[in-house]
């Protein structure tokens, strides 16, 4: 497995790992941006309409008005899409934390590496924060477990491939199951 600058691991043959890693790397910025946009939109509505977005939309729908194609609808849909993506990641992390055999450890690794509101300065700081949850870790162990946590999260987000599922099933059966191509 090739190493890159800053100890970033990549898996050339599995784009799911790369997609999950990129998703996690941008999580803080996306969450912050979404909160800023919502705040700005709420402020704009309050100034322009003297009401909250929710009250405005309720009155529009009650009156039977159609917002299809309007700027308000486009902004609302954009915010909703972004929010759904973030909720998908959050619920996937919760599923990992509550159901994977190393879920609690993986959660804290992902939290301090990618999900906490404030980004930690470096790997030493992340490892220090992990001590109460996992004990003392070497850099090598940290990166190995972080990689495993991202792979486990990838399986939740994007699913297992048929080949991986068969490999897992073969561990439980005496006669191996083969994949037909």
What features would you describe in this structure?
- With 181 residues, this protein is mainly α.
- 71% of the residues lie in helices and 0% in strands.
- The longest helix has 29 residues.
- The N terminus is likely disordered.
Content of β-strand:
under 5%
| Percent helix | over 70%
What is the rounded distance between the termini?
27 Å
How would a crystallographer describe the biggest sheet?
none
H/E element sequence = HHHHHHHH
**Helix and strand composition category:** mainly alpha
Count of distinct strands: 0
What is Rg?
22 Å
Low-confidence blocks of residues: 1-12
Overall, the morphology is: elongated
By DSSP (H or I, 4+ residues per run), the number of helices equals: 8
Mean pLDDT: 81
Give me a quick take on this structure.
The protein is mainly α.
List the helices and strands and how they pair.
Layout: H1 15-25, H2 27-49, H3 53-63, H4 71-99, H5 103-115, H6 123-134, H7 139-158, H8 162-170
Task: Write a concise keyword list for the protein shown above.
181 residues, 8 helices, 71% helix, mainly alpha
């Amino acid at each position: 497995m090739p190493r890159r600058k800053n100890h970033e691991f990549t898996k050339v043959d599995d784009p799911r790992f790369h997609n999950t890693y990129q998703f996690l790397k941008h999580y803080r910025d996306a969450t912050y941006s979404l909160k800023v946009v919502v705040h700005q939109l709420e402020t704009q509505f309050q100034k322009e309409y003297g009401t909250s977005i929710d009250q405005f939309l309720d009155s529009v729908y009650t009156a039977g008005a159609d917002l299809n194609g309007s700027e308000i609808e486009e902004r609302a849909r954009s915010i909703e899409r972004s929010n759904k993506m973030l909720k998908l990641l959050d619920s996937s992390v919760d599923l990992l934390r509550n159901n994977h055999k190393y879920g609690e450890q993986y959660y804290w690794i992902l939290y301090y590496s990618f999900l906490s509101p404030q980004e930690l300065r470096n790997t030493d700081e992340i490892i220090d924060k992990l001590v109460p949850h996992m004990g003392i870790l070497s850099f090598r162990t940290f990166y190995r477990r972080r990689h495993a946590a991202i792979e486990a999260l990838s399986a939740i987000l994007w699913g297992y491939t048929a080949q991986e599922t068969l490999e897992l099933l073969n561990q439980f059966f005496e006669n191996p199951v083969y994949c037909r191509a």
